[in-house]
Amino acid sequence: MAGTLQARAQQRLSRNAVALNRTRAPEKQWFNIPAKIEAGKRIADEEKDLAWADGVRPHNNAQDAMRHARWSKRMAEEIDPAFAWAAGVYHEGENLWDEGKDLWRGYKAKVRDVPVERDVPDPRQVLAESIMDLRNNHEGLQAAREGRPVAPDHLQTRPLRPLSRTGPKPVDYAPTYKAPPQS
Fold first, then answer.
1. What pLDDT digit, counting tens, does each position of 110-125 carry?
2. CA dihedral of 36, 38, 40, 45, whole degrees rounded to 10
3. Contacting residues for 82 by C-beta, under 8 A, at least 6 apart
4. How many CB atoms within 10 Å of residue 21?
5. 48 and 120 Cβ atoms separated by less than 8 Å
6. How many whole angstroms separate alpha carbon 165 and alpha carbon 157?
7. Beta bridge partners of 70
8. Contact 37, 106 (CB under 8 A)
9. Cβ–Cβ contacts within 10 Å for residue 171, how many?
């Protein structure tokens, strides 16, 4: 008897859970990862368009910081806070990976004394920019959690050089390793 009641209760709970998930937006369903990714890309594109609206390139400035924070905040509110955090970390990891490949190509070219196709970035600058973006993503997540707008004074608008011997200091543009001139 107890087993039968427990089985009926379990069936009822399952039906209710399925019905609840059918009524929610696809990106809000915990199991619908493709819908979450699609919604995250849509939000990223909208925020990128908004950041470019005045024609100034949003890179390592207040617009870039606000874009990262708003992107994280909107994803946390419209999709899921855990997904917003994971997407931000993934995005910055992907940037580090791509820049790392360029650094390795530049190193191999320097060792072999062959020209490279493009400038190779300073690794300290790449790391500093990723840290700055992650901090700004965190501010967006905090704003979503607390139900407040993103506070511009909580944003980091310029990267710090974390590997400097004299301590962190703001840098505008770190030097890059230039490709040797082709003869």
1. 666 656 665 666 777 8
2. -170
3. none
4. 14
5. no
6. 22
7. none
8. no
9. 18
pLDDT digits (tens, 9 = 90+) for 123-136: 778 888 899 999 99
Place of tokens 């608008």: 157
> Would you state the pLDDT for residue 178?
45
Work out the angle at residue 140's Cα, subtended by the Cα atoms of residues 86 and 32, and round it to the nearest 5 degrees.
35
Q: Name residue, tokens 């959690």.
A: 145
Q: Where are the domains of the chain?
A: 33-183
Closest CA to 128 of 163, 91, 167: 163
Flag whether pLDDT at 21 surpasses 70. Answer: no
- Asked if the model's pLDDT at residue 18 lies above 90, the reply is no
Please give the pLDDT value at position 29.
74
Beta bridge partners of 160: 170
Q: Name the residue with tokens 């501010």.
A: 139
Taking a C-beta distance cutoff of 8 angstroms, is the pair 79, 36 a contact?
A: yes
Percentage of the chain modeled with pLDDT above 70: 63
Measured distance CA(29)–CA(8) in Å, rounded: 25
